[in-house]
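Just scan my protein:

——
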Amino acid sequence: MDTIWFGDLSDALSAGTGPKYTRLAEALRQAIASGDLKPGEKLPPVRDLAYRVSVTPGTVARAYTRLTDAGLLETGVGRGTFVAQKAISAPPLRVPEVDSVLHNSEADPHEVNLISPHLPNAGQARLIRESLMQIAAAPPSGVMHYPGHRTGQAAREAVVSYLSNVTLGRLGAEDVVLSHGAQSGILLVMQAVLSGRRPVVLVEELAYPGYRRAAELLRADVVPVPMDEHGVRPDALVEIARQTDAQLLCLSTEVQNPLLIAMTPARRLEIVEAARRVNLQLLEDDTYRLGAVSGPGLRALAPERGWFVSSLSKSLSPALRFGFVVAPDGQAQGARRAAEAGFFGLATPITDLAATLLTHPALPKMQEDLRKEVACYVRSMVNKLGRFDLRWREDALFVWLSLPPGWRASAFARAAEAEGVQIRTAEDYADRNGRAPHAIRLAVNGGVSRKSFDNALERLRGLLDHPPERIAV
């Protein structure tokens, strides 16, 4: 490599973003792909190149290792590092067309699942496929090493950038722990926080059932806290926490699941003050938020006890199983140890993919298009079912319907299933020993045609209009 090449590498290192070793590896990869570095050509020794481009030898060694794992470089003991004779170059992108929803009425499915949200495709499928093909051609983290804290650095930095519009207080990549979706993140927080033989976890009166499942895995007791129209009641929180010696409260402040409550900034402050009085840790689940935040995160208000959990399941695709935990200031080590002991770390192709997606210039526009698509589905639900007691938000992936007199939730669910529509009832969100309201949650399903979706809603409306007859005895 001549003097001109060293200058090109120095320019690439100073102009790019991300870790220096990834910038160096990308500059070398591009040189190989363009033919400027030819098969069999010898690269400078690690220390020589480090000196010439003003980086550490470790930076060069990591760049060389990344390209060797990708098949672009090869090494020989005592010989040095060479461009591979048959260097792998990125294949031309031939991305299959995105699966479109069905528009043929004869092919429209009668069975429609409204249990869990199925995201409309606003371009994320193609973006994921293109990114996967690029990563497969030259995996930034390689494919022959165990994942670890270091291999996830780019993804953690991308998470910090992705959360730049969320008020979480001082935040760096070292505060982020990667997880297999938000459910895995919830479990990591509980493993980091809970102690004792039968710890107690507090949840909202109607709450995401995953909190209970995670707590049960750790042999923790789960106790619900009464709510009002603003969310968890601070007075009840203090009383129950003192009675049970609880250690953790799990809640959502932006889009409460299933009641769609957005907690006011004033109530968030009250929750934080209550948590400090009884020494509670706070887990804020932000998975369902699609739009802008309506107030500061609990981590910003209580940096010593606020844990933030989210994922890409409701904003890109649930297939990726990529989530993250933002720990309280300086407290990430506990969750990181739990992750390393439980699964060593996320697969490196997934962390490479997440880093690519979260920093992709097309992501903001795509997510705005997704919000618009979701709003269209919600409007359909309101148009079909709005004359009943319906809670809804255009920026949410589900609605909450209180059933009219004559219907019990369990009976309505059976009747809906007989009509080809699967739904979730309030029992799924209530304490097992408590009384659940006669209500149901209906999720957006963007995986079926709008015609099938609307037909399913019409069948539900027919059931709501005709509750079962009752015979007095």
